[in-house]
Amino acid sequence: MLLAPPRPAPRPPEQPGMASDAASAGAGLGQAWAPSAGDTGALCQALTHQASLDDSIRHMENALREQGHASQVRLGWFEHGHVHLHGQKASSHSDEDKHWAAAMEEALDQGQALRWPPHPDHPQQWVTLAQRQLAGHDQAAVLTLILPGPSAPMGALSLLWPRLELAPAHEDTDAWQSLATQTAPILGWQRHAGRSWHWHLRQQWARRWLQGRQGARQHPVLAWGLALSLLAALTVLPLPERVGGQGRIEGAQQRVLAATTDGFIKQVYAHPGDKVRANQVLADLAEQDLKLEREKWASQAAQQDNAYAAAMSHADRAEAALAMSRLEEAQAQLALVDEQLQRTQLRAPFDGVVIQGDLTQSIGAPVKQGDTLMTVASTQHWRVVIEIDEADIARVRVGQVGEIALSALPWDTLPLRVRRITPLGVPKEGRNLFEVEAEFTAPVPPEVRPGLTGQAKLRIGQTPLLWNWLRPVAERARLGWWSVWG
């Protein structure tokens, strides 16, 4: 339901945009403000002079922040049962945006302007859980207004005040709702005018199709005209053409941790899937044999040192030289053993995640020098490997963009850009596939991990939709014709 029009306020109308000296003075004193009929009319007049919907919304938000003392102002459109915040990207789903959308949906569901804190005389009249969550703390205030449409609400407008003394009084809620009610037709008209030409064409086709279903028998010429128009659009209208295939995520940098010496697995501290930090110990190898060998070479080094001292005391230069060479050999072997002892601990080379190497069932098992024990992939940079069929690889170019929908995140698509095309095909399941390496062009969600797979699509140009459907058939027919007739 919509609220009644506002009571006239005792202030004269301001210039477009509602910026006045009195209002600025009020903002400095922290006084609450309510829009008068003159303020609303001035704002509507200013909105009609804006060049686009984005300019109008920006102008309206700035005016409400300056005049109404609100710290944040957001507008959302109600479509298909959900609120879509204006200016929000399709891939953006931050917690703050979710709170704004939830507050708007709460008001739209109840058909009523809602605010937090509620009226002290009627605290339980309306459900305001989302408004309270958007406010964040008890000293903040939230007001969500309805933007009415011709037959149903077309959106909502939410305002946030950091302090209660800046928020409008409860009796001024009707005046604020009246401002939203009178500006809604202007915003709706600008939004409709700013739609793309193919959106208007689809709407026109939809209306004609509905009319054609009702009177197709009485108007066969119109029905044939619509059919020919649709065929012409499919033949001439260029639409984005995409090719795709199975995609998998890998770390842009991977490091294999191998056994540095023959030994046994003593202890394991990480498993596949665990996130690790740089220089973190992942596993220990048994060092008993190395310690015994170290004691052996340390003992020999001490003996040769004593032999060298005795030879020097007897002035036996030949024996001293022989003892010195043996001492240097023992010291070299001792340094080698010390280095091997330090390498008995497998450490992560960088921040990342363990993707291979489950050693929990191999504790005590012998390993040989060079055996692969674990693989760590970096989580700072990713790459996406896309398998493209050989029939489509000729149209893929470096720099083309696309998206991937992961099986683990089916509702989100992540943007990609092609970096490299592997020149060799790989037979797989009766097909010849080429691996195309791509990179993400936007921050990835924390749920993304190496090994996730999904369906990737690359945009390779624009062609008519009918040709996209007939291209595979035409190419196979041409290849079959050439193989028979040459």
How would you summarize the topology of this molecule?
Elements: H1 21-29, H2 37-48, H3 53-68, E1 72-79, E2 82-85, H4 95-110, E3 114-116, H5 129-135, E4 141-147, E5 155-161, H6 173-193, H7 197-215, H8 220-236, E6 238-251, E7 254-258, E8 263-268, E9 275-276, E10 281-285, H9 288-313, H10 317-342, E11 345-347, E12 352-356, E13 366-367, E14 372-378, E15 382-389, E16 401-406, E17 414-428, E18 431-440, E19 453-464, H11 465-485
Antiparallel strand pairs: 1-2, 1-5, 3-4, 4-5, 6-15, 6-19, 7-14, 8-10, 8-13, 9-12, 10-11, 12-14, 15-18, 16-17, 16-19, 17-18
Helix pairs in contact: 2-3, 2-6, 4-5, 7-8, 9-10
Structure, described:
The radius of gyration is 36 Å and the shape is flat. With 486 residues, it is an alpha+beta fold. The N terminus is likely disordered. It is built from 11 helices and 19 strands. The termini are far apart.
Q: Remind me, CATH topology of the largest domain?
A: Beta-Lactamase
For the biggest β-sheet, the strand order reads 6-15-18-17-16-19
CATH superfamily of the largest domain: GAF domain
Separation of the first and last Cα atoms: 74 Å
Shape: flat
User: What is the number of E strands?
Assistant: 19
Number of domains: 5
Query: What do the pLDDT scores average to?
Result: 79
Low-confidence stretches: 1-30
CATH architecture of the largest domain: 2-Layer Sandwich
The assembly state of the depicted protein chains is single chain
CATH class of the largest domain: Alpha Beta
The main β sheet shows up as: 6 strands, antiparallel, barrel
Strand coverage percent: 25-35%
**What is the gyration radius calculated from CA atoms?**
36 Å
The level of helicity is 25-40%
What class, by secondary structure content? Answer: alpha+beta
| Total helical segments | 11
- What is the ordering of alpha helices and beta strands? HHHEEHEHEEHHHEEEEEHHEEEEEEEEEH
